[in-house]
Structure formats: structure tokens, C-alpha cells
Write a structure and sequence with these properties.
Elements (H helix, E strand, L loop, with lengths): L18 H4 L47 E7 L11 H22 L5 E3 L2 H9 L3 H12 L3 E3 L14 H19 L8 E2 L8 H5 L9 E4 L4 H7 L2 H4 L4 E5 L9 E6 L32 H16 L6 E6 L9 H17 L2 E5 L2 H10 L3 E5 L7 E3 L2 E2 L8 H24 L3 H4 L16 H10 L11 H30 L17 E2 L4 E2 H4 L3 E8 L9 E7 L4 E5 L5 E2 L1 E5 L2 H5 L12 H11 L5 E7 L5 E9 L11 E3 L6 E4 L3 E6 L4 E7 L5 E12 L4 E3 L20 E3 L25 E5 L4 E9 L2 E8 L5 E7 L17 E9 L6 E5 L5 E5 L21 E3 L2 E6 L4 E7 L3 E4 L5 E9 L47 E11 H16 L3 E5 L9 E3 L9 E7 L10 E7 L13 E4 H4 L5 E9 L7 H7 L4 E3 L5 H6 L20 E4 L4 E10 L7
Parallel strand pairs: 1-8, 1-9, 2-3, 4-5, 5-7, 6-10, 10-48
Antiparallel strand pairs: 6-7, 11-12, 13-14, 15-21, 15-42, 16-20, 17-18, 17-21, 19-20, 21-43, 22-29, 23-24, 24-25, 25-26, 26-33, 27-28, 29-30, 30-31, 31-32, 32-41, 33-40, 34-35, 34-37, 36-39, 37-38, 38-41, 39-40, 44-45, 45-50, 46-49, 47-50
Helix pairs in contact: 2-3, 5-14, 9-10, 12-14, 12-15, 14-15
């Protein structure tokens, strides 16, 4: 994300950074330190200037590091968004193709020149269109270190929204492309996360050190932290440090990290710019605009300025920015000149470099570096500009990425177990991802990879680009559905057709998330196959919910022949209304509207609910059949009048109490531990600022009390809330509609009890207690968020930031915990940051305390020994703004742009189209850029929260299992009741994995260029000190795990996380950085607050017949394995 226009105005080194400067190159004002040759009167000039063109106009660019001088590493780079203002296709053909093409030509001209490239998803497109001779040229410049792949992932992923599975997958895909086409010459050594809007610990240790990276650089740091770090000589804290991002792995996963200096205030551009029409270096003294002496003077000044804030005599200049080098001759011709002339000056030393070469020099300096654990959340560039809105922007796209990742995992497993190839499936994606491997999962893998981009899953692209991401994933998912069908046919020994309801069809035709499935609702009997991709012991029963027509159904286990306890629940009116929201009323008359309603309406009347225990990494089959009216009773939805007495519901584990007079829940009790506390679930929304003054917020960026709303004067800023920025007008939480007592409805039954709470027609949820389940489910539905608020005076067209709040009686003392991309939990405190930060002043008491919640957020009452955890199936912004409270932002609908470059408000519709009455590229009636002809309801989204409440250690034991089960649920396929299979149940593994280990990945997609081997990956899901037993190292045998299925383990070799090098080779390259704690021991205490880290990796012996693996807490290990395919299958 960047601005379209780079403003070439002054940027004082002492000022705080603003977004305009982040991607800016050049345009920095300098005061001359000497008179310039052309500024002198002609009569006072020397005959020739100090700097004359070299003989033959051949510039000397052969310099390298010089000890004792300021060494400036010139790092040519481009930053290429894989979609943002236009789609990934449009960016490639308009811009990126020419960047790679012209850079290659310029590198071939001069072996001293360097270039780094990040986005392999773009590079793969270029590579696929090149003749072999040109590919050989690229291999040549890669082999000799001129072209360096930095990061090397499919894209530059976001760090707030994706979970760790998606981050690893897309990085692995990029690295495997490099292995396939360049071998070991292109193994990335560092990562270049210059544009994301904050940085997670998981990026540092997992997608950093454990991926073979030795450095990570970025372009944005919180402005208060950045300003404090400018005083390097006084504090010893500079722009660079050693990041130890894992409490579990400690210094064994340290990485050299830091903010690029930019033009003095961070950013991934630098003091100079020679792209396109930018001012060029003119070294012909016969011309009036000769300026070499001026350029040299400015560069020397800039180098000395940066040296005063940089540790060691080496400094990095990031020479490039967004989509630059489309005509690479502009940059290289000028860089050749400045290297030549500045080195003639002799004050400083310039040379072509890369981040890897830069870090090599940092190693040689033998310096001692600041040690840091803190992440870079939340990010602010001014007192009222917090980049915390995008945590919840485009939540539907975020959820699609999360569930597509699960779907991909299921498909990989089925493809491996069944031995189904792409040719067997024969259903290629129409618009596939640039191909890499041989599997029918390849295109979906690539499409998810593109969408983890920091302007995609972040929710910060334009609407038509977001639509493109969603469409591409859905298109590739249809190929995967065909592959799953083929795999099930092979495993089950049938030629029956299988049908899917995974939300990949147009509109809502087949989407279980809104209780629509054409096949199940149009048949009086059917069979459902449920595949469980989890392989660990200790899983709870899965609750399957299938749309059906009619209220009398029975379910049978096809393996045992025994009936399965089932319950039929009426579909509530809110759910039935959702499909009709997809109608685009533009141009429709009454008859057209009626036809659309008939086309989109849900044919189901009820939900068939039953609980099952599924085989590990396997499937089970269940048959469902409609009964005659007289054969069973059915549940109905009971409306609870406001005058009714308080009541309670329970599932044998939890009890919830409700008060009809208030319409609210009142208490939660864990029936096993006997813990109880006040408990209230509520909805609300913050009014989005469109710029101006916010009453009650602190306006002084340098002063303020312990709580930032202590100032009586309003906080004034032109900043509006938008796709990136969250800025409410005040801390007030408004009721979602005209104030009323929420209504209560209840469904009771032997399988599930449900309580429906309606706060308004656009803010509802269902509290669901499945019998015997160790958690409470809250299924929330938000939208369509109204554009106006007529129930509030003077509220014309207020943007709304919608939250669900969980309020308890626990005393959490303003402390809470959020997960980092589904991995370690990070301690948070209201209005505070960790010890590596300066004394921070938080001037936005709401937005300044929001963090990304990828999978879970928790708080504790240590005196009571109780913990409340809320798990989520999609990344959302969240916080605890008062003791005992958790809030999660579930949806946003805004009326203004935040001026961060996307250039349209976040105003989504159910049709995925733009605004009514808007010509293409123009703003419509609702202030949204349009394509003309869109009249749709605002986007409505649905998701789930799981609530855990128990003694602290019990919650900690359960929450990691629940995290996997919520985000990686069973995948269902439907077929005819007449389908006969001799294999109604199946497991691909012989023994269960330990409870604290997850089987993450098994795929043969990369086998063709990895000696026919399969990539296998496991994760320890607990962190150090999280639980007394489950946080211990976990040991298991690969040979025992895969011993009785079609796949029998034959051999295994340990690899780096992404499979691009042997693990021992990666570990041997790790550099032992010398560090010190500049906070008087606070960082060390922070790192060891949950116990001592596990610094030493447990060795893996490939000659061990058992192929024994031991994982440290939070460790993820990747293997390349081979199987003995004996053609047999195991059934249980």
C-alpha cells in the first residue's frame, strides 16, 4: 500500500514520519555545504568542475566495503503489490513484466550491479513467458549474486491477518519455485517486509530464523518508538536490533531486524530517486544543468546524517519503491554515476549491495546489539492515526482465506492417501495460478498465496480487486472439489457422484455457513462423508449441521449400522433472510425481483444436527433419511417473553443464565470446576471519524495522563477512519439500532440447546451449547450495517465499526493476551507496550489498544484462578478496554477514505459490486467508487466465537485443541443414499499424534523436483510454560504414524521450514549475535516470564528405524519423506 503520487517536498530528519514519506524516494531538501560550480558566476568558475566525466564515459562501479569509512550499501529494489488498486493480472502486464525484463538487461551489462526481488508469484508469471535462452540469462545473474531473491515467498504477506499455516504455505511455494528453477543458488537469506502495517513475533522467529533467514527489514515503526530511536548516541537504541521473537525458542531463533532508515523517518525509499522523470545526475559540464557536485554534496551529507543514527560504519539505502525500474536504465545509469563520483570525493564509500551483503558486514563488526522481544503492534504514524482498522477490514475475504487454507489441507491429504493425480481429476482451473507442481491442489495453493498479500487478506485493496481475489480462490476450489470427489471415489470403491457445499458457488447457493446446501435440502435421503484432517489424540466430537427440508430425520453410522443421536432445528428467520440479500435491485421491476427471490431463497426448512467422533486423518460415512410425520417429535423455537422468569441452559459442562427482562445473559458457570462469574454478551458500534475533533481524546502528542482520554480538550486531526485506520469519534459504544431490550428465543433438545439473541435486525447471534461439548459457541451475524442512523439525532451517514463484547466479573487488571498468527500468546496491557518501547502516550484509548486476534484472545483473574478465552474463526481486531471485558470487531462499514492510497471507502455490498448511480471510476450515491448499475444491500457476514471458561490450566490445555478444531473443521461431501461402499470408514494413520502436535502439511506437489519426495510438516501447538504437561517436548515416530495405510513410511530427511535446504545446513549458517538488554533486564525477564526457552534442537536421525521426531514447544519441523506404496489400505 502506497500513495500514487510521491510528494517531492522537504522531509526533516527530526520530524515524525507520515505515510507520504514511507514509499518516497528523493525529493529531500539539503543545504549546500559548498558553493556549487553552476551556482557561481561564469567568470568566477574554474575552467572545469571538480568532477569530470571519465574517459570513454565508463564509470567505475567496482567498489566494495572499505574499512574505516562510512560504507553506503546501495540496494536496488522494487516493491510490487500482487494486487491493490488494480488486480494482480493488471499490475503484471502494465508494470511488473517490464521491471524484471529491463532489470535483467541492465544486470547483464555490468556485473557490479545488484537487484533484489521479493514477489515470486509475479516472477513466476514472467518466467513462464520467457524462452529458454532468456531463462539462462536470469540463471546467470542469480548464480553470480547480482539478482538476489529476498524473502522469496509467493508475495509479501500481511502479518496481522493470516494464520501461521497460510504464511508458511505461501512462503514454501515461493521457495520451492526457486528450488525448481535455480537450485541452491537462489536460497533466500533474508526477508524484506517493507510494506506491511505492523510486524508480528511469528514473522521474526518462524517466517524468519526458522526459515533460514538471517535478517528482516521493514518500512514502518510506531512514530513514538521511531522518534526515540533517533537518539542513538544517547540511548544505544537505533533503527536495528536483534529480535528474539519466541519465548519458547529464545536466542536459537534470533534474527537481525530493523526499520530501514529511508529519508530519516523510516520508509523503504531513500534520499535519492532516479526513476522515470525524477531529476537525473547530469555530469556533462557543457550543459546548463550540470549537477554532479550538488548530488555528491547531498549524498555525503545524507550519509553522515544516517551514520549518526546507525550502529557500525555500514548503512543501507533502499534504492527503489513501488513498481519502480520499469525502465531500469534510469536507476542504473544514475547509480553508476553516483558510485563513481562519490567515491572520487572520498568522504564516504558507495557500492552496489543487497541486504544479505549488508548483514554480512554487520556480522564482521563484532558489535553488541540491543535484544528485543516486543512486536510492532499497534502501529501509529501520529497521535490519532492508528493502523488497527485493517485487523477487521473485509472480514468475509479474511474468512475465505482461512477456510480455503483448511480446504487445501484436506485436499492435500486426500490426494496423497488416494494417489489421485491431476490427470485423474482432469478439471483444470480456468484462470490458474502460475503453475509450480503436479498436484490438482497447485492452483488453489497459488491463489491463497496471492491473497495473503498485505493489501489482500488485510482488507485494504479496492473492491474490484477484493472481488478478484475471492473469485480466483473460488475458481481454484472447484478443481479441488473435483479432486476430492475423485479421491473419495477411489478410497470408497465407488463411481457415485459427490457434491459439495463449501461456499464456492455464485451467491449463497451452496454455503453451509449460511445453512444452504442444494443437495441435502432437495433430497429426502442422502449420505454425508466427513473428512477429519486433524491427526492428534484428544479431539472432541464434531458437531455436524446439515440443511434439510422437513423436521423428521434419522441418522445412521454406515460403519456400525447403529443410529446416531440427532436433532432437527428449525432454520431461524434471520438465516433464511440472508440469501435474499444477494439481490441486485438495479434495473429490476417487481416481476424481476420476485424471480430473483425465488432463485435465491433457501429451500431448506431445518438443520439436521448430530455429533460424531471421526477417524484421525480420515473419514466416516453417515446416512440421513427423512421420516414420516408420525415417527418422531421435533423441536421448535420458543419465544421468551420479557415478563418471563430468569432461566438457565446447560450442556453438562457449562451453564448460562439469562434474564428476559433485560434480554441479556447474566452468568456463566463451569459445572465441573464450579467456577462462576457474571457474563454478558452485547453488541455495539463506534462512530467512525471522518476527520475533525474527537471529544474527550488527548490532543497533545507529547503529554497525557495514565489514561489517554484524560484531556478535556478535543483531539483534532484530519485523519478519517478507513480500510487501514481505525479512528472512532469517541469511546462511546452505540446500541446497534434504536435502543430496545434484546429478544430471546430458545431451542432445547438432546443434542444441542440454542439461545437466539436479537439486538436489531442487523446484529444477532446464537448461543449454542452442544451436549457434552467443552466450549460454548456464539455464532454471530452482522449486517447489513445501515448507512444512516435515523434513530440518533444528527447522525447522517455515520460510518460504523461493529463489535461484540464479552463482559465478565473477572478482575483482569487491564491485562489480556492475544495470539501471534495462531502461535505464541503475547501479553498486552491497556495503554502500555513492552519494555523495548519508550514511555508511550496512547492518545486514542480505543484504537490505540486494538491488536490483531488471529485465533484467540484471553484474560485471567489470578486471584480467582480463572481464565476466559474467546476463540475466533477469522482474524479480527480485539482488545480489553476494561477489566474483565473482551471485545472483538466483527464488521466495518465506512463512509470515508482514510487517504492511505486505496482511494475508496470500505463500503462493501452483498453483490460484491460498487455503488448505485456511479459511473465507472466515479463516486456514487453512497460515496463508493462505482462500476455503474449496483443497488445492493450492505455486506452481511457470519462467523463463530468459541468461549472457554475454567481454571487457568484447564483453559490453557483446551484452547489449543479448540483452536485447531475451530479453524480446521471437518470437510463434508454429499452423495446418494444408494451409494454402496465397502469402505465406509477410513484412517490414513496407524497411531495418533500426541495431543500437543499437529500434522500441518502432507503434499507431493513439489515431488517432481525434489527426487520424488513428499513434503511433511508437523507443529508443536503449545508454547513454553503454557501448560505443565502439554508444553513439554513432544516425541513421536514417523514410522509408526504411517505404518498401515497405502502410505508406509520408507525414509525421511529433516529440512528447513520451507523445504529449500537441509535443516543441518540451515542451522550451520546461523550467526550467534552478541546482545545486551538495554532495559536493565526487563527484556530478559519478558522472554523468560513463562520459563526458560528450549535453545537446542533435538536431533533427527534418518537412519533410526522408527524415524523418531522430537519437537520443542512451538517448534515446526519439515521433512521430505518417501513412502512404500504397497497398494493396501487400512480401514477401522
Amino acid at each position: 500500500m502506497k500513495l500514487l503520487l510521491l510528494v517531492l517536498s522537504c522531509a526533516s530528519v527530526g520530524a515524525q514520519w507520515n505515510e507520504k514519506s514511507i514509499a518516497q524516494t528523493g525529493g529531500i531538501r539539503h543545504k549546500p555545504s559548498v558553493p556549487y560550480w553552476t551556482d557561481k558566476p561564469i567568470g568566477q568558475r574554474s575552467k572545469f568542475p571538480r568532477y569530470m566525466p571519465p574517459q570513454g564515459w565508463e564509470y567505475n562501479t567496482s567498489s566494495g566495503p572499505v574499512e574505516g569509512k562510512i560504507n553506503v550499501h546501495l540496494i536496488p529494489h522494487t516493491h510490487d503489490d500482487t494486487g491493490w488498486q488494480v488486480t494482480v493480472d493488471q499490475y503484471f502486464y502494465r508494470n511488473v513484466y517490464y521491471i524484471i525484463d529491463t532489470v535483467l538487461a541492465r544486470l547483464l551489462e555490468n556485473p557490479d550491479r545488484k537487484f533484489i526481488y521479493v514477489e515470486v508469484g509475479f516472477f513466476a508469471r514472467w518466467w513462464g513467458e520467457q524462452p529458454e535462452w532468456k531463462r539462462d540469462q536470469m540463471r546467470k545473474v542469480v548464480a553470480r549474486g547480482q539478482m538476489e531473491f529476498i524473502n522469496g515467498a509467493w508475495c509479501m504477506h500481511d502479518e496481522a491477518a493470516p494464520d501461521y499455516s497460510a504464511m508458511i504455505d505461501q512462503t514454501t511455494r515461493g521457495h520451492q519455485f526457486l528450488v525448481k528453477n535455480f537450485g541452491k543458488t537462489a536460497i533466500p537469506r533474508g526477508t524484506w517486509q517493507v510494506d506491511p502495517f505492523g510486524h508480528s513475533n511469528t514473522q521474526a522467529y518462524l517466517l524468519g530464523a526458522e526459515s533460514g533467514f538471517e535478517s528482516v527489514f521493514w518500512g514502518r515503526t510506531d512514530y513514538q518508538d521511531l522518534n526515540a530511536r533517533k537518539n542513538f548516541t544517547g540511548t544505544g537504541k537505533g533503527f536495528e536490533w536483534i529480535w528474539e521473537g519466541s519465548q519458547s525458542l529464545g536466542s536459537s531463533a534470533q534474527i537481525f531486524a530493523g526499520e530501514l532508515f529511508g529519508s530519516g523517518n523510516g520508509g523503504y525509499g531513500t534520499w535519492i530517486s532516479y526513476d522515470g522523470d525524477d531529476p537525473q545526475v547530469q555530469d556533462d559540464p557543457t550543459q546548463h544543468d550540470y549537477n554532479v557536485d550538488m548530488v555528491v554534496d547531498q549524498i555525503v551529507q545524507s550519509a553522515f546524517e544516517q551514520a549518526s543514527k546507525t550502529q557500525t560504519e555500514h548503512q543501507a539505502w533502499a534504492c527503489g519503491s513501488d513498481f519502480q525500474y520499469q525502465n531500469a536504465d534510469h536507476w542504473y545509469h544514475n547509480l553508476d554515476k553516483i558510485i563513481h563520483y562519490v567515491n572520487l570525493n572520498g568522504s564516504v564509500n558507495l557500492f552496489y549491495s543487497t541486504p544479505s551483503l549488508y548483514v554480512d558486514q554487520k556480522k564482521k563488526a563484532s558489535s553488541t546489539w540491543e535484544k528485543r522481544y516486543d512486536d510492532v503492534w499497534p502501529l501509529a504514524d501520529d497521535a490519532h492515526n492508528y493502523w488497527t482498522g485493517y485487523f477487521s477490514s473485509r472480514v468475509a475475504l479474511k474468512r475465505q482465506v482461512r477456510f480455503a487454507t483448511n480446504f487445501l489441507n484436506t485436499a492435500r491429504q486426500l490426494g496423497m492417501v488416494a494417489g489421485v493425480s491431476a490427470s485423474d481429476v482432469d478439471h483444470p482451473t480456468t484462470r490458474p495460478s502460475p503453475p509450480l507442481g503436479r498436484s490438482w491442489t497447485d492452483s488453489l495453493e497459488g491463489m491463497i498465496g496471492i491473497t495473503t498479500h498485505h493489501d489482500a487478506v488485510s482488507g485494504t485493496s479496492r473492491q474490484d480487486v477484493a472481488d478478484d481475489y475471492a473469485e480466483r480462490m473460488a475458481e481454484s476450489s472447484t478443481e479441488v472439489e473435483a479432486g476430492i470427489s475423485k479421491s473419495l471415489q477411489k478410497l470408497m470403491g465407488t463411481d457415485a457422484d459427490f457434491f459439495h457445499c463449501n461456499c464456492n458457488d455464485e451467491g449463497a447457493k451452496n454455503c453451509l455457513n449460511i445453512t444452504m446446501c442444494t443437495y441435502s435440502s432437495n433430497h429426502d435421503s442422502f449420505k454425508v462423508i466427513a473428512w477429519n484432517n486433524l491427526a492428534s489424540e484428544g479431539q472432541s466430537e464434531k458437531s455436524l449441521r446439515i440443511p434439510v427440508n422437513g423436521h423428521q430425520w434419522t441418522v445412521k453410522d454406515e460403519h456400525t449400522g447403529l443410529p446416531v443421536a440427532a436433532q432437527v432445528v428449525p432454520i431461524d428467520s434471520r438465516t433464511l433472510s440472508v440469501p435474499l440479500l444477494y439481490i441486485n435491485y438495479y434495473g429490476l421491476d417487481e416481476a424481476g425481483i420476485a424471480a430473483k427471490r425465488k432463485e435465491l431463497m433457501n429451500n431448506a426448512t431445518h438443520v439436521l444436527v448430530f455429533n460424531v467422533r471421526l477417524p484421525l486423518m480420515g473419514y466416516a460415512t453417515f446416512s440421513a433419511e427423512k421420516l414420516a410425520e408420525s415417527e418422531a417429535t421435533h423441536a421448535s423455537i420458543e419465544k421468551i417473553p420479557r415478563t418471563a422468569a430468569p432461566f438457565s441452559v446447560d450442556n453438562g459442562v457449562y451453564q448460562l443464565s439469562f434474564d428476559p427482562s433485560t434480554g441479556m445473559s447474566t452468568t456463566i458457570t463451569n459445572l465441573k470446576s464450579k467456577l462462576t462469574t457474571d457474563f454478558e454478551i452485547s453488541w455495539g458500534w463506534y462512530q467512525s471519524s471522518t476527520g475533525g475533533c474527537s471529544a474527550g481524546f488527548d490532543n497533545d502528542a507529547q503529554t497525557g495522563g495514565a489514561r489517554a482520554n484524560s484531556s478535556a480538550s478535543p483531539a483534532c486531526s484530519r485523519q478519517a477512519s478507513g480500510a487501514y485506520i481505525f479512528r472512532p469519534n469517541s469511546s462511546e459504544v452505540y446500541f446497534p439500532g434504536p435502543t430496545q431490550v434484546p429478544t430471546l428465543q430458545v431451542v432445547r433438545g438432546p443434542v444441542v440447546t440454542e439461545v437466539y439473541q436479537t439486538f436489531s435486525e442487523w446484529a444477532t447471534h446464537v448461543v449454542r451449547l452442544v451436549q457434552g461439548s467443552p466450549r460454548i459457541e456464539v455464532e454471530w451475524t452482522a449486517g447489513p450495517i445501515p448507512m444512516d442512523s435515523p434513530w440518533l439525532p444528527g447522525s447522517n451517514r455515520w460510518g460504523k465499526e461493529v463489535i461484540v463484547k464479552y463482559k465478565t466479573g473477572l478482575n483482569s487488571k487491564d491485562v489480556f493476551f492475544t495470539d501471534a498468527n495462531g502461535r505464541e500468546m503475547v501479553k498486552r496491557q491497556y495503554n502500555a507496550r513492552g519494555p523495548s518501547y519508550p514511555d508511550l502516550k496512547v492518545h486514542e484509548p480505543v484504537a490505540g489498544n486494538y491488536y490483531p486476534v488471529n485465533t484467540l484472545i484471553s484474560l485471567q483473574d489470578e486471584a480467582k484462578g480463572a481464565e476466559l478465552t474467546v476463540l475466533t474463526d477469522v482474524t479480527q481486531g480485539g482488545s480489553s478496554l476494561a477489566s474483565g471485558e473482551i471485545e472483538l470487531m466483527v464488521h466495518r462499514r465506512l463512509q470515508a477514505d482514510d487517504n492511505r492510497g486505496v482511494q475508496e471507502p470500505l463500503n462493501e455490498t452483498m453483490c460484491g459490486c460498487n455503488d448505485i448511480n456511479a459511473a465507472p471510476g466515479k463516486m456514487g450515491a453512497h460515496g463508493h467508487e462505482g462500476d455503474g448499475g449496483c443497488w445492493c444491500e450492505g455486506l452481511t457476514v457470519r462467523g463463530r466465537h468459541w468461549i472457554l471458561f475454567d481454571e487457568i490450566q484447564e483453559v490453557r490445555a483446551e484452547r489449543r485443541i479448540a483452536q485447531e478444531e475451530l479453524n480446521f473443521p471437518a470437510t463434508l461431501a454429499f452423495t446418494s443414499q444408494s451409494m454402496v461402499s465397502g469402505n465406509p470408514v477410513f484412517s490414513a494413520i496407524q497411531t495418533a499424534l500426541p495431543r500437543n502436535v499437529r500434522l500441518m502439511t502432507i503434499t507431493d506437489n513439489y515431488a517432481d523436483f525434489n527426487e520424488g519426495r513428499t513434503l511433511l510438516r508437523f507443529a508443536h501447538i503449545y508454547s513454553v510454560g503454557e501448560h505443565p504437561e502439554l508444553s513439554q517436548p513432544a516425541t513421536f515416530s514417523l514410522a509408526s504414524l504411517f505404518a498401515a495405510s497405502r502410505l508406509r513410511m520408507k525414509s525421511a530427511v529433516a529440512m528447513a521450514l520451507t523445504g529449500n535446504q537441509l535443516q543441518e545446513e540451515m542451522d550451520a549458517k546461523k550467526f550467534p549475535w552478541k546482545t545486551h538488554d538495554l532495559t536493565g533486564g526487563k527484556v530478559t525477564a519478558q522472554l523468560e516470564s513463562n520459563g526458560k526457552p528450549f535453545l537446542k534442537r533435538f536431533a533427527f536421525d534418518p537412519s533410526d528405524p522408527k524415524l523418531t521426531v522430537t519437537l520443542r514447544p512451538m517448534e515446526i519441523r519439515t521433512f521430505f519423506v518417501t513412502f512404500e506404496d504397497d497398494g493396501k489400505s487400512m480401514f477401522i
